Structure to design on (483 residues):
């Protein structure tokens, strides 16, 4: 069968835009395949032809194809090329886009979005919290009490900003644990950090406004800002995290998204001097800083830096946090801490999108926090996750130390294993997926600045026995270099 014509998916590529061509090419291919624009079984043009046509390095096109192969959008047939699979998995679960009827630009983009599969935790999927017997017993008892004692008014609509008692508990916790300086009136309850970032984008950005993101970057953050039609500029991180001085642009952005306490995914903390520099720059230029303070609580004691927000005197920081990692992800509760003048617009945006978080769930969490269970739970989880972190690092060093280098890190929820420099982490992740082991390749989080190949391995939701079995499968799957 002749190869599909490249013009099908290359006409939308924007050479002058801030997004790297590789990312644009991948997004465009996903969209065309998901919409059935290239038939099942069709062969994609060779990487040589495509790289010549687009003026890109052949290795860039190969990396894009490998990424799509890892996601199941295309099939790699060694020696023959890349093909559209006869039943493209990500597209098959989606209804076809109603292309004959008008939909928004956004709907067209979203049709190609692949929602990550979640279910029973598979090692080394990241972001799973442990649910132990102590937690279950506490949570069930509190839930029974809350559901029994609720007044009629408490079953009705509540405060869209979040239950005041819960906001008081959160403000006290954030002040003590994360050095956040806020009153309960500055907190808007969210359904998690993703929601918090969506709200921030809604109240801060107009379509076309510039948003700076760290490179590499948390993928969902990038997607949320894309959904807000921001012009995204990737800013490289160095050993101290976000380096605004290294930004490719001098024009001030409207918003900067950053993970200062533990850069996602590379894990470095932004030191005090860099934080002050960032805040002074924001005050001088009027840019907003969105601080995503994910999983800071699981750093080793003494290594935990307080929040950037706590140093902010100019009211430039929007602080986002989540109970997904502190309690469990399907709880869908998080918080945005905002300067006073942004609280009203953010609460209105929340009210108009989904009104509020669940009343009974907020009440259970409030009891969990006020009764001291939350602090005890965090202490137990911190110790458990530190043990799992140690266990996985040791297991990999013992079994695969000749191949993988564990990035020195204290704790957190995942670790990074570096591959030899001439490996493709996308190909390694694909080989591991075939062996039932989940690893996120660092290259899939990179926007513009190339990094050495590495894999993110989450350990918090996996028992030592499950991790031991997975390390064995991993060693077998990577025993010869995957291509
Ligand atoms: C860096 C980072 N930010 C935010 C989130 C999103 O958390 P939430 O479940 O609160 O939306 C995650 C989840 O994995 C994350 O890794």
């Amino acid at each position: 069968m002749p190869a599909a014509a490249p013009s099908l998916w290359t006409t939308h590529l924007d050479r002058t835009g801030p997004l790297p061509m590789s990312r644009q090419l991948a997004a465009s291919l996903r969209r065309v395949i998901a919409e059935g624009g290239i038939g099942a079984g069709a062969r994609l043009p060779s990487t040589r032809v495509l790289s010549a046509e687009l003026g890109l390095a052949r290795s860039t096109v190969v990396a894009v194809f490998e990424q799509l192969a890892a996601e199941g959008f295309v099939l790699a047939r060694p020696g023959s090329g890349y093909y559209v699979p006869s039943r493209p998995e990500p597209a098959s679960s989606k209804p076809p886009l109603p292309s004959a009827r008008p939909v928004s630009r956004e709907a067209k983009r979203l049709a190609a979005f692949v929602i990550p599969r979640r279910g029973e935790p598979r090692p080394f999927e990241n972001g799973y919290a442990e649910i132990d017997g102590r937690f279950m017993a506490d949570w069930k008892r509190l839930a029974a009490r809350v559901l029994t004692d609720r007044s009629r008014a408490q079953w009705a609509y509540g405060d869209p900003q979040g239950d005041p008692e819960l906001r008081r508990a959160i403000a006290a916790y954030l002040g003590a644990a994360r050095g956040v300086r806020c009153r309960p009136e500055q907190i808007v309850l969210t359904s998690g950090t993703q929601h918090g970032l969506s709200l921030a984008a809604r109240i801060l950005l107009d379509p076309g406004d510039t948003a700076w993101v760290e490179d590499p970057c948390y993928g969902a953050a990038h997607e949320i800002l894309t959904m807000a039609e921001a012009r995204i500029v990737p800013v490289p991180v160095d050993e101290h995290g976000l380096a605004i001085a290294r930004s490719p642009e001098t024009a001030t952005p409207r918003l900067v998204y950053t993970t200062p306490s533990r850069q996602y995914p590379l894990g470095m903390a932004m030191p005090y001097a860099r934080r002050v520099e960032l805040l002074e720059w924001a005050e001088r230029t009027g840019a907003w800083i969105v601080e995503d303070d994910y999983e800071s609580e699981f750093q080793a004691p003494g290594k935990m830096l307080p929040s950037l927000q706590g140093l902010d005197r100019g009211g430039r920081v929007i602080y986002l946090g989540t109970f997904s990692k502190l309690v469990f992800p399907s709880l869908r509760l998080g918080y945005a801490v905002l300067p006073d003048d942004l609280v009203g617009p953010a609460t209105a945006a929340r009210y108009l999108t989904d009104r509020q978080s669940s009343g009974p769930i907020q009440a259970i969490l409030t009891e969990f926090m006020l009764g001291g269970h939350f602090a005890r739970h965090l202490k137990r989880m911190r110790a458990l996750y530190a043990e799992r972190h140690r266990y996985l690092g040791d297991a990999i060093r013992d079994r695969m130390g000749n191949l993988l280098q564990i990035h020195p890190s204290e704790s957190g929820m995942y670790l990074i294993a570096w591959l030899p420099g001439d490996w493709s982490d996308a190909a390694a992740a694909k080989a591991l997926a075939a062996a039932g082991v989940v690893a996120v390749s660092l290259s899939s989080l990179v926007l513009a600045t190339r990094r050495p190949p590495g894999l993110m391995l989450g350990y918090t939701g996996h028992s030592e026995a499950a991790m031991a079995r997975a390390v064995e499968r991993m060693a077998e799957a990577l025993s010869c270099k995957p291509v």
Q: What stands out?
A: The mean pLDDT is 90.
